[in-house]
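FW: tagging you since you asked about this chain on Friday. Here's the raw sequence from the shared folder, copied in full. Didn't touch anything.
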Amino acid sequence: MIKIDLKELEKKKERNFKERLEFIDKYVEWLEKTDNKTWSKIHKNFIENK
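HL: got it, structure written out here
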């Protein structure tokens, strides 16, 4: 039987959530300072190679 530490799991969940929010903030900053042509090309490559 696997024993799970629920408090530790909750801490990890909270950390993960904060990291995701930080990533979103940084990504939005990048989008705002990057011209459309540049980020469109990057996204196009990502979608086509997925």
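FW: The radius of gyration is 18 Å.
HL: agreed, and The mean pLDDT is 92.
FW: great, closing this out.
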